[in-house]
From TrEMBL:
It holds the Pfam family GGDEF_2. It comes from Microtetraspora glauca. This is Helix-turn-helix domain-containing protein. Coiled coil: none annotated. Belongs to the CdaR family. InterPro entries: CdaR-like_regulators, CdaR_GGDEF, PucR_C-HTH_dom, PucR_C-HTH_sf, RsbRD_N_dom. Residues 178-285 form the CdaR GGDEF-like domain. Residues 334-392 form the PucR C-terminal helix-turn-helix domain. Residues 27-164 form the RsbT co-antagonist protein RsbRD N-terminal domain.
């Protein structure tokens, strides 16, 4: 027992001797370690300013080497490692880079200890070697504490960042954005402040239970989308880059199971609120609940109808009242025929194929509509009135 205690005391003496010398050489040691770390790891060069890096290494070495001179209960090297880990997490340095820095630090400090003892008491080198486990254990303890602190801080930041991202995205699409908010959102969402954007809105089947779920990024070829779930619908901000709207609609089509509305292109984040309103308007032009993608610029007449429901209701009553007064079956036959006529661009043959009847039947029904309404499908103004009135019947709730 006595010989073991004496050996431990001798190891402690040599370690304290070397540590005292190294504390006077801290600037040179910090220069050496920082240089090696920045040469070996691009992440440090990109994410940690040189002055910040040097100061943190200097402070960590002063605390770690100085701990050799202190009783075990007074060691402060773990607390220093935790402070550094929090800062590196905030700077976005990868945890692997942080942990590699402890390996390099161990090598630099150990080599420096050997150099001091070889210079001051070369005969004591075997004693220092027996104390190697103390050095490596201390640095391992620092690395473990740093890793745990880094992960806790990363989790804290991720939670706050996710909430901030959702809040910024909500502000953009709810038309609460000004220039400064758009600039902040661009940085937080990693999106250009100015660029070609569109907004997509899809209906959800019934009330959804995840109205505050996290933002969900997806890509469709070159198009980047950020999806946000709301109580009754899902909204996406689409960064189009150089893609055309047809490419966005084509990419969405396999994934759409409910109606969806797409806004026109807007030129920046600050315009997303307007784009969201126009996407909602496009969605309202979808009459059913099946998969349908409505691009506003292809639905402008119908959008006019749904945006002015009172006036549109008056129009449908004034134009189609005699048709609407028929019994339901007869009324639906005539309205479906008029709808097919418009969709087939006035072609009786194509409309007959769509309706599964003879072309003469289509002509007969069209003539009946003209007689009932007093409008002629040969007159452009009458065509406009009939088309808008039909949209009003199909899209507006029955009152």
């Amino acid at each position: 027992m006595g010989s073991g205690s004496a050996a431990a005391d001798e190891i402690g003496r040599i370690m304290r001797l070397a540590a005292g010398v190294l504390l006077d050489r801290l600037p040179d040691l910090a220069d050496e370690l920082v240089g090696k770390m920045r040469d070996a790891d691009e992440a440090y060069r990109r994410m940690v300013p040189t002055d910040d890096h040097w100061q943190s290494v200097h402070d960590a070495m002063r605390t770690g080497i100085g701990a050799i001179l202190l009783p075990p209960g007074e060691r402060r090297d773990v607390a220093q490692a935790e402070r550094t880990a929090r800062r590196r997490a905030e700077q976005g340095l990868p945890i692997d880079s942080l942990l590699r820095s402890y390996q390099m630090s161990a090598q630099v400090v150990w080599n420096a200890l050997i150099d001091v003892v070889a210079d001051k008491e070369p005969e004591s080198l075997p004693v220092l070697i027996r104390g190697a486990t103390r050095v490596w254990h201390a640095i391992d303890r620092q690395a473990v504490a740093a890793a745990e602190t880094y992960r806790r801080r990363e989790a804290e930041m991720f939670g706050r960042t996710a909430e901030r991202i959702q809040s910024l995205l909500d502000a953009l699409i709810e038309d609460r954005a000004d220039t400064s908010l758009a600039r902040s959102a661009a940085a937080a969402l990693d999106l250009p402040e100015l660029g070609r954007y569109a907004v997509v809105i899809t209906r959800l089947p019934g009330r959804h239970d995840h109205g505050d779920s996290a933002t969900r990024p997806t890509t469709l070829g070159p198009i980047r989308l950020l999806w946000r779930m709301r109580p009754d619908y899902e909204v996406a901000v689409a960064l189009l880059r150089d893609a055309e709207m047809e490419e966005l609609a084509r990419g969405l089509r396999p994934h759409v199971t409910r109606p969806a509305g797409i806004s026109p292109v807007v030129e920046g984040l600050a315009e997303l609120g307007r784009a969201r309103r126009l996407a909602e308007l496009a969605l309202r032009t979808c009459a059913g609940d099946g998969p349908e993608i409505a691009h506003l610029e292809d639905r402008l007449p119908a959008a006019l109808v749904v945006s002015q429901p009172e006036l549109a209701g008056h129009l449908s009553g004034a134009v189609l009242r005699p048709v609407l007064a028929l019994d339901p079956a007869d009324r639906e036959v005539l309205l479906s025929t008029l709808e097919a006529w418009f969709r087939c661009e006035g072609s009786a043959m194509r409309a007959a194929g769509r309706l599964y009847c003879h072309r003469n039947t289509v002509f007969n029904r069209i003539r009946r509509i003209e007689q009932l309404t007093g409008r002629s499908l040969a007159r452009p103004l009458d065509v406009v009135e009939l088309a808008l009135a039909l949209d009003a019947v199909r899209l507006l709730p029955v009152t």
